[in-house]
């Protein structure tokens, strides 16, 4: 066996199951470190809940009722936005109606549970709805 073949064989053995499964070799998202914040700002996590699907075309009154029932009790200082657009399933250039809820997570024990409860309530109320959660490090001031 030549040195090159031996090196290739050892590389394949060392890679293990990743060599056979390229999907497993993709990087996994990890939580970013808290940013170094300027004076008067504090590190936090911004959580955005993006609510899409046919349910996103609900009336303004129904949206307000959802926010009042599911969002406000969990996050009284949250920001709920309307008339935003998300990327479509069929084309990256298609715009689909969406709603977003933006909350700041400050380290409370049950904050992430609240975020996921809002997402789950949307999915439960509107069975064909989609809901995604995006978390990002942030610097905030109150």
Description:
This protein is an alpha+beta fold. The protein has a domain at 42-140: Ribosomal protein S6/Translation elongation factor EF1B (Alpha-Beta Plaits). It has four helices and four strands, in the order ααβαββαβ. It has helices at 3-15, 17-20, 60-71, 111-125; strands at 42-52, 79-87, 95-105, 130-140. A four-stranded antiparallel beta sheet has the order 2-3-1-4, covered by helices on one side. Strand 2 (79-87) and strand 3 (95-105) form a beta hairpin. The N and C termini lie far apart (67 Å). Mean pLDDT is 73; it is low at 1-30.
Descriptive labels:
142 residues, alpha+beta, Alpha-Beta Plaits, four-stranded antiparallel β-sheet, 31% helix, globular, disordered N terminus
Sum up the overall morphology in one term.
globular
- Percentage of residues in strands: 25-35%
The radius of gyration computed from the alpha-carbon positions, rounded to a whole number of angstroms, is: 22 Å
Strand line-up across the major sheet? 2-3-1-4
Helix percentage: 25-40%
Would you tell me the overall average pLDDT? 73
Strand count, sense and closure of the main sheet?
A: 4 strands, antiparallel
> Segments where pLDDT lies below 50 for 5+ residues?
1-30
Provide the succession of SSEs: HHEHEEHE
CATH architecture of one domain: 2-Layer Sandwich
Distance between the termini: 67 Å
CATH superfamily of one domain: Ribosomal protein S6/Translation elongation factor EF1B
CATH class of one domain: Alpha Beta
């Amino acid at each position: 066996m030549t040195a090159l073949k031996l090196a290739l064989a050892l590389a394949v053995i060392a890679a293990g199951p990743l060599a056979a499964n390229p999907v497993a070799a993709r990087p996994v998202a990890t939580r970013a470190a808290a940013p170094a914040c300027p004076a008067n700002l504090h590190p936090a996590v911004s959580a955005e809940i993006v609510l899409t699907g046919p349910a996103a075309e609900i009336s303004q009154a129904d949206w307000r009722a959802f926010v009042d029932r599911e969002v406000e009790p969990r996050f009284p200082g949250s920001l709920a936005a309307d008339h935003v657009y998300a990327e479509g399933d069929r084309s990256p250039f298609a715009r689909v109606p969406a709603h977003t809820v933006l909350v700041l997570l400050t380290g409370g024990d049950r904050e992430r549970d609240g975020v996921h409860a809002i997402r789950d309530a949307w999915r439960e109320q509107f069975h064909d709805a989609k809901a995604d959660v995006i978390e990002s490090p942030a610097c905030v001031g109150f």
